[in-house]
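Board notes (copied after class):
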Amino acid sequence: MFSAVRHAARAGSSALRASPRAAPSARVFRPTPFVRTLITKKYTEDHEAVVFDDQTQIGTVSITDYAQSSLGDVVYVELPATGSEIAQGDQIGAVESVKAASDIFAPISGTVEEINEKLNDQPGLLNKSPEEKGWLCKIKVSDPSELDKLMTEEEYKKHCESDH
């Protein structure tokens, strides 16, 4: 069989030749827009946390796991009104537990865009998942530079250790 292939190739048989290809078309380079989203998590000395998305300018406010464990079983959560303007350090709500009551302070300035309505019926979400399902409110941040005044996770851990 191989001798037949060699013989056909020498004879210039068109059956074994590749079909002519169309000339390659010029490829147009279209850069895709590069979108960088930075998610930053910062903490306050009063045990609030804020997760800031620099693309949407939304900060999701919660209490920390340390705070919920110190409070014990949460039985009531007071949240700010949607649309209210708040400044960093303002009282924006309160958490009541079987042990104590504690005020919630705004970690950043801005406008309250959304509150976690689930906490009205299920305040225990703060105990089960304080920084995820138990978030308190979402704030449209007016001054992202305020995040620089807050603690990083490492600084917050040291702060909690020094509280003891």
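Comment from the instructor: The mean pLDDT is 84. The CA atoms of residues 54 and 123 lie 29 Å apart.
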